[in-house]
Amino acid sequence: TQNRYEKSLNELSLVEDLHQDGEKLYSCETCGKGFNKRNKFMSHKRTHTGEKPHTCESCGKSFSQKNNLSSHMRTHTGEKPFPCEICGKSFSRKSNLLVHVRRHTGEKPYSCETCGKRFFNHNALLSHMRCHTGEKPYSCETCGKSFSLQSNLMRHKRIHTGDKPYSCETCGKRYSRKNDLFRHTLSHTGQKPYSCETCGKSFSVQSHLVTHKRTHTGEKPFSCGTCEKPYSCGTCDRSYSRKNDLLRHMISHTGDIIFSCGTCQKSFTSHSLLLHHVNTHKDSHSGLPSYSASLALPQQGSSS
């Protein structure tokens, strides 16, 4: 017993000496990184092995580190234990709170070495860097299309699945994109949060404000310097001043069905786009939206 006790003291003394000397007790054989604590060393090793021993009992998702599992569990419980002292908004992860606080302080500690643009968090910087490198690491398993951002891939995959995870609390209408839901909710509230600084006119959609501001500046960002017809057909090179005219023309090449609005004659290549549009009109007699569909056959030997 005495020998075991002395041996333990000697081992403890050795550990203390190593800490005092700044040496690392555990060294990763794969990358050489050193650690003083065994649990951190073991967690690090899983980044090489891919092992994920911590599993969520609710959904079965696995994690390499226990703290990541704890954070994940809050997605099931709804717990948000990290509140912002400035605005009161709460978060399930402390890291998300830290990033949020920077939006109040304006701090952007992560800078792009190529263009100098700064960001609130490291992930945003990494995503931005892909606009310089052209890297698109996220690929759709269904059609093979690649994306620079994982969020863009997830949004794209809903085209294949038809998933619409965003639901309007007022009328129950569902959307595949969060921005589309936000625009829709404005139709209930009548809110127009985007105001023109020149004339004060307000808009419910930011893109409409951007278009409106050009009436003050005279800017024509899509204008061709030769003919002022910015929309060109890739098949016959015919140009149009309006995007809708180009879409109508391109159908003459493809033979697709034209979905036309009975009120303003505007045409669409899909029924869903037409239905979204016709709701802006009301038939003067029936009170119902009016629309029709017709088949446009390809015109042989013609470029229009």
UniProtKB/TrEMBL annotation:
InterPro entries in alphabetical order: Znf_C2H2-type, Znf_C2H2_sf, Znf_C2H2_type
Coarse class of the protein's main subcellular location: nucleus
Q: Which UniProt keywords apply?
A: DNA-binding, Metal-binding, Nucleus, Repeat, Transcription, Transcription regulation, Zinc, Zinc-finger
Specify whether Transcription is a keyword of the entry: yes
Query: Which one of the record's GO molecular function terms can you name?
Result: zinc ion binding
For this protein, the record's Pfam families field holds:
zf-C2H2 (PF00096), zf-H2C2_2 (PF13465), zf-met (PF12874)
Q: Which domain of life is it from?
A: Eukaryota
Please give the Gene3D superfamilies that the UniProt record associates with this protein. Classic Zinc Finger
Name the record gives this protein: C2H2-type domain-containing protein
Please give the organism: Salarias fasciatus
